[in-house]
Design a protein that fits this description.
ten-stranded mixed β-sheet; alpha/beta; Metallo-dep_Hydrolases_sf; Urease, subunit C, domain 1; hydrolase activity, acting on carbon-nitrogen (but not peptide) bonds; 495 residues; TIM Barrel; binds N-(aminocarbonyl)-beta-alanine; binds zinc ion; globular; 15 helices; eight-stranded parallel β-sheet
Amino acid sequence: MDFDLIITNGLLATASDIAPLDVAIKAGKISLLAPHGVLDTSKAAKVIDAEGAYVTPGGIDTHVHLEEPPLFGGKGRSSDTFETGTRSAICGGTTTIVAFAPQAKYMPSLLEVLKDCHSRAAGNCYADYSFHMLVGSPNPTALSEFPQLVQEGITSLKIYMTYEALQLRDDQILDVLYTSRAHGITTMIHAENGDVLNWMTRKLEERQLFAPVYHATSRPQIVETEATNRAIALAELMDAPILIVHVSSPSAAKHIRESQTRGLPVYAETCPQYLFLTRADMAKTGDHGFEGAKCVCSPPPRDGVEDHEGIWLGLRNGTFTVLSSDHCPFMYEDKEKGKKSILSPEHPVGRFAGIPNGIPGIETRLPLTMSANKLPMTKFVEVTATNAAKLYGLYPRKGAVLPGVSDADLVIWYPEGRIKEGVTNGMLHHNVDYTPFEGREVTNWPRYTVLRGEVVWDRDGDGLVGRKGYGEFVRRGKSSLPGPRGEEEFDVSKF
Ligand code: URP
Ligand code: ZN
Ligand code: ZN
């Protein structure tokens, strides 16, 4: 057989083009692209007829929390393991994830943390995977390990301007930016002003305002906007590339866009929760007033349609480089390590400040965004796959369909008009007892997911057909998007 798989009759959509092309796959790689009817399908071990539907590069989700300890408020522990999280990923069309390797403040070494994450992921993943370091303590040991991280294929890290367990001071942020820049690492920044939101929280609690919706009240847009502006200022001082993660607020997006217009290497990410959820979802009064906890994440979903429109606009006009899930799953009912771990006799309907921050969304990211029909198809591919690959050093092995070069990671969608249904938690494959997107209508879903030439999801057939352990660690190179503007080392005396 000349080919392992040929996908016929598809409309191949990449970040740059849409064309009616058949895709031939051999040994896990894209082998040939040809106009419909040219390839001899009798020479393929397997043929899939896409029936005129879109065929896109496999999704790349570069913001995923799996098996993480309590870091994001209260006693919450991620409910998804590498096994269940990556299982859910492929069933929603995501073939590569980048999860966090979290260093808590008391841990000196990043390499030790990385080793531990490798041992938990190896042999357990359904999707290909990598790690960003999550730097809780930029101590001298940790900073000295940055060159080794790059050698190990880890070329990005995340830092926080909030959360008691993780918040860095501005001088610590400068230490990270300085060292990252020197070694070609991209710094991801969680931009919320922790001191301001803590103060707001104290004031709300003094007034006995504890319900989940006050999570949003404690974090008005200015909390995010100020921190975003400060992060950009620190990065500009250092001439270091940054990515502002999970941007929720159009006013923060304005600062980002302005810095990009000035030519700074400032990138940004948003997530489906900032396109589909609002403060009203946190104000839901079911379950004795606690139901809104299902949507508590940081930054919080904003007020309404105008905010959503601002974020969609930022996706369309290129302010946002990537659309990730920020999948940070906690069980709702679990009273030990889930959302309900904050319930107590003293606070029978909870206390927003102790609700673990984060929501699941790894499987719904692509179908919800595709179904919204608000992005041109090439832009959809760009922000859900191609740009992620470029930004985080995976391109063109991932995020592209270049013959002889790219892994055969693909999603085959349904022809238009075939699907119209509400999302239910029962149809998802994560290890979470709810989805914040319950009932939302989708008009498409990955019909097949293909990872390195193997069909791993066959929705109309046996569903999940991938294997635990098939997912491989992917060693990443440096970002191929523009980095520092100057070549020379940072020189403090030049100021
Ligand atoms: O609420 C969120 N976003 N939880 C995940 C942790 C983080 O900051 O990304
Ligand atoms: Zn964050
Ligand atoms: Zn996150």
